């Protein structure tokens, strides 16, 4: 089922009790809970719910620019805009809606937006919750017969973890990455799973379609499946940087990890009438850890 509550949030629910919450503000998923009602996404205790500022946590949409590698605000304007419910959504793949509770949102540029980013686009976002609790986000960006344009994109996903020092990422081994902490210098990841002892801010050039985030304490694994999104951003600000952010609690860096399915290194270019689709499917599965971890 889905219902729009008074604060512009669409709540998706499935019969097993799992739920997801999507805000019309920013098209941002603000909550994803399992069948026991346990929250799976991080939201800062100091998050600012004051439009147009994006709320720190959940899954902000970074579009048409990731980071501040362009002329727009950090991570682009899409996450700071009011989206509309899309009443005539495009037909996606049949299983994109079978047995799922979903909502379709639409973002189009206002006259104001066109002054900053003069490209006529339509951005359709489908957020769906499957019967098994999986959360899927499908973004479709179309060039509405304007001139050719390029953009970078990320699902800026704040996963909730029990203790960052007990988390590891599998699926990025041997991938190259650009290290934001070293002037985006290029390195190659070693053969082991990624673990965390200090600030990490990296862009992995990983065309692998499945990434796993293992939370030792919770004995659960987030499984990230992505299509049309060749890169993965991994970010934890650690103590010093998180203390410098007003909307980030002092110790909260221990309970979060951003693992963003993205298209950044090679921006997406759309000719008039062309469309790009970026799919993200999130699952959470119990994971039995072997004792050596
Ligand atoms: O996730 C990578 C990153 O660009 C970091 O460098 C940091 O700036 C972060 O995003 C900021 O994201 P925020 O949600 O605070 O806009």
Automatic annotation (TrEMBL):
> What domain of life does the UniProt record list for this protein's source?
Eukaryota
Q: Member of which family? A: Belongs to the glucose-6-phosphate 1-epimerase family.
Q: Which InterPro entries match?
A: Aldose_1/G6P_1-epimerase, G6P_1-epimerase, Gal_mutarotase_sf_dom, GH-type_carb-bd
Q: Which GO terms describe its biological process?
A: carbohydrate metabolic process
Q: Name the chemical reaction catalysed here.
A: alpha-D-glucose 6-phosphate = beta-D-glucose 6-phosphate
Gene Ontology CC: one annotated term = cytoplasm
Question: What is the name of the protein in this document?
Answer: glucose-6-phosphate 1-epimerase
Species for this entry: Rosa chinensis
Primary enzyme class: isomerase
Q: Which CDD domains match?
A: D-hex-6-P-epi_like
- What are the EC numbers? 5.1.3.15
Q: Name one Pfam family in it.
A: Aldose_epim
Which keywords describe this protein according to UniProt?
Isomerase
| GO MF annotations, alphabetized | carbohydrate binding; glucose-6-phosphate 1-epimerase activity
Cross-referenced PANTHER family: APOSPORY-ASSOCIATED PROTEIN C-RELATED, GLUCOSE-6-PHOSPHATE 1-EPIMERASE
